[in-house]
Design brief:
Layout lengths: L1 H12 L4 E2 L8 E4 L2 E3 L1 H13 L7 E5 L5 H12 L40 E4 L8 H5 L3 E6 L2 H18 L7 H10 L7 H14 L4 E5 H6 L1 H11 L6 H5 L2 H8 L2 H5 L2 H4 L3 E2 L3 E2 L18 H15 L7
Parallel strand pairs: 4-5, 4-6, 6-7
Antiparallel strand pairs: 1-2, 2-3, 8-9
Bound molecules: adenosine-3'-5'-diphosphate (A3P).
The site of adenosine-3'-5'-diphosphate has 21 residues, from helix 3, helix 5 and helix 12.
Length: 314
Amino acid sequence: KEYEFEKSFKQMISTLPKRKSWGNREDFYQYQGFWLHPTFLKGVVSAQQRFQAQPTDTILCSIPKTGSTWLKSLVFAILTRTSFDDSTTPLLSKFPHEFVPFIELSHADLPTYPDMGIPVLATHVPYSSLPTSIIDSGCKLVYICRNPKDSFVSLYHFNSTILTSQNAQPPGLDEAFELFCEGVSIYGPYWDHVLGYWKASLEHPNKILFLKYEEMKHDTISYVKKLADFIGYSFSSEEQQKEVPEKIVKMCSFENLSNLEVNKREEMYMGMIQHKMYFRKGKVGDWKNCLTSEMAQRLDQITHQKLSGSGLSL
Ligand code: A3P
């Protein structure tokens, strides 16, 4: 069966449009309108064929570099708050991505929840390419997005750091910028990814919670409460009195997580990315330190154009 899958996957991928992928060895493939790395693409196709979501699942969705590490930590802390406190939470000793299986990678044997059995999964798959069982099961989705200028800058640094650590040559800022604007970036076009989930969240507001990194940074406590309500784990008034939401916010803050030994390690996640690479600055507006005003204007213009009429602003 596995052999059959490999064979048909190889055949299918050979028909897809390809582009060079920001200095990575393997090209991006355009699948159902989005640019994917072949390893993840295989996982997506496999998940589309085999993944069986449960109605009680919560799926954390995002395009890379928009705050998925933070979201995973917050949801984990919310769901496990009665089992642990600030001094015992596994967040202190484990890398946040390890709490939540990544659909594209665990495709073959999905999914035994690796930690504490929390029914949470994560994916970068665009809404229109999600396995149908996710929609049919009625499970809940949380999508996090971020201003495209900060997302691009975060992605640019992330990619450069990974490639440099592999002694490979990353693209320069201008080249990466052009590709991003063209839509050729991991799981891109960026705007189409965001819009897919945005439109779906308008259609199914009780099934899809649409979050923005900037708003969450601004008022994390309110959003933690909103998240808890959405996934069916509301804070009781007693918990609120004891400032449990505040403690979760503090535990999952960039300052706290990025200073934990486990998150400073060079240990690899997914065999190629060091834990510490997921924690860079964690700020809103860092694009100002990287983009020229022309670049910023150009991205703003694309964003304006792409999102016009959608009711979404980024
Ligand atoms: P910067 O590169 O702008 O610093 P993802 O987790 O989706 O890969 O996104 C990574 C971005 O989120 C990085 O942005 C990273 O620093 C930031 N980040 C990581 N942990 C965070 C946290 N606890 N709070 C806020 N931002 C965080």
